[in-house]
Design a protein that fits this description.
about 425 residues; alpha/beta; Spore Coat Polysaccharide Biosynthesis Protein SpsA, Chain A; 12-stranded mixed beta sheet; two-stranded antiparallel ribbon; 14 helices
Length: about 425
């Protein structure tokens, strides 16, 4: 794969945000080019063999899920975290069977689990995260909560990277490209604490009977604008460096991920930026001297494939915008001038009444604080939805389960 060079970055303490890079060639060969960098095939494979791809899923069709699975490179470990309906039709059962059949045909292993399984809630509570549990005794609904579960499962595999791919992607080729970009970016970042965030090339929509390839999402424009305004208030210079505030498709080293606090719902992606600024930005005292010394590169990479997915409506988009602004408003590193501007904007949008304050989003402790050894035992014993299909074992070959029970650490951080 060939990526355009990143010639500029902006610093916020130990966080280095690189300007948007483009995929120049999906398959680069070995010839040199001016202003670009090649990631050899063997480097991509090495990174993929260390990567877990988490697929948050909610009521997607079997065909769409099959397509997403087919796009994930063979050496990546798959984790599907579902919050799909279980009545009147058990859609999770359909999803789990789809993953099991895929693993059997492809000769690979995976993990599946349902977010609202009572056994999952009991396991996370026992392992040290009661904040994740709602008043019904179940893991809270929300995408951020699904991502947290996925990261915890990824941490048990002993691999070094975790990436996220939404389950509503209609194009297997774009899923494949995302995973390749994760591998390429993490290889180039060359840091134990790095992140890669995807900016899709276009999001096609039907207009007047023809496809229109929009370059920016309705929610992303707002989130990026306000995150850049946050940076500008500190530096005194306007900036557009952040282009991936709402990047659902992103990856990171687990060494970094296990230190991050994840927000609930759709606040999860923009809050990753804010948590980086809070923990490693130098404004607040950091408890991670090793990260501060190493720095945290954030690579933003624009892909080539268009991003086709389901249109969930204006209410969904508005909710994403407001959750992003909620976490920005309440961050302890956001300056007063930005807070006041957020209130003025939300009042003008009709999201707040005059005199109101934005609501707080839920923020969870880092996954690295969990007792992973206890978490696995509890999931294995109590979570009926937790499955580990092994395609090699089903073909009569030596088993290759996703998790080696003997190698799970009790706590990572």
């Amino acid at each position: 794969m060939r990526l355009a060079d990143s010639f500029r970055s902006e610093r916020f303490g130990a966080v280095r945000i690189h300007e948007l890079q483009r995929v120049i060639e999906l398959d680069s060969g070995t010839s040199a080019g001016a202003g670009s960098r090649i990631v050899p095939a063997e480097a991509l494979r090495a990174a993929e063999s260390q990567m877990v791809i988490v697929v948050p899923c909610m009521n997607e069709s079997r065909s769409v899920i099959e397509g997403v699975l087919s796009g994930i490179p063979h050496d990546c470990q798959i984790v599907l975290v579902s919050n799909s309906d279980r009545q009147p039709v058990d859609r999770y059962e359909i999803e789990a069977q789809t993953v099991e059949q895929f693993c059997r045909l492809a000769g690979r292993s995976a993990m599946t689990v349902h977010q609202r399984d009572p056994g999952v809630a009991a396991a996370f509570k026992a392992a040290g995260m009661p904040e994740l549990i709602d008043e019904d005794g179940l893991v809270r609904n929300g995408k951020g909560e699904a991502m947290l579960i996925g990261m915890a499962l990824a941490a048990m595999t002993g691999r070094g990277y975790v990436g996220y791919v939404d389950a509503d992607n209609y194009v297997p080729g774009s899923v494949h490209e995302y995973c390749k970009v994760y591998a390429a970016g993490l290889h180039l970042a060359d840091s134990p604490y790095s992140m890669v965030r995807i900016s899709w090339h276009s999001k096609p929509k039907l207009r007047d009977g023809r496809l229109f390839f929009s370059r920016r999402g309705r929610s992303s424009e707002i989130t990026n604008e306000w995150l850049n305004r946050f940076l500008a208030e500190y530096s005194g210079f306007g900036t557009e460096v952040i282009a991936t505030g709402n990047a659902g498709e992103h990856a990171m080293t687990l060494a970094l991920g296990l230190k991050l606090r994840l927000a609930g719902g759709f606040a999860v992606e923009p809050y990753e930026y804010l948590d980086l600024f809070e923990q490693f930005g130098g404004v607040l005292e950091s408890t991670s001297s090793e990260v501060m010394a190493s720095s945290v590169p954030v690579l933003q990479i624009e892909t080539r494939n268009p991003h086709f997915h389901d249109n969930k409506g204006e209410e969904h988009v508005q909710g994403m915008r407001m959750q992003a602004l909620n976490v920005l408003y309440h961050s302890p590193v956001t300056l007063p001038s930005v807070r006041q501007a957020i209130i003025d904007f939300m009042v003008a949008q009709g999201a707040l009444a005059v005199g109101q304050e934005p609501p707080r989003e839920r923020v969870y402790p880092p996954v690295g604080t969990l007792d992973l050894d206890l978490l696995y035992d509890a999931l294995d014993a109590e979570a009926l939805s937790f499955r580990q299909p092994d395609g090699l074992a089903s073909a009569g070959l030596p088993p290759a389960p996703p998790i080696d029970r003997a190698a799970i650490p009790r706590r990572v951080a």
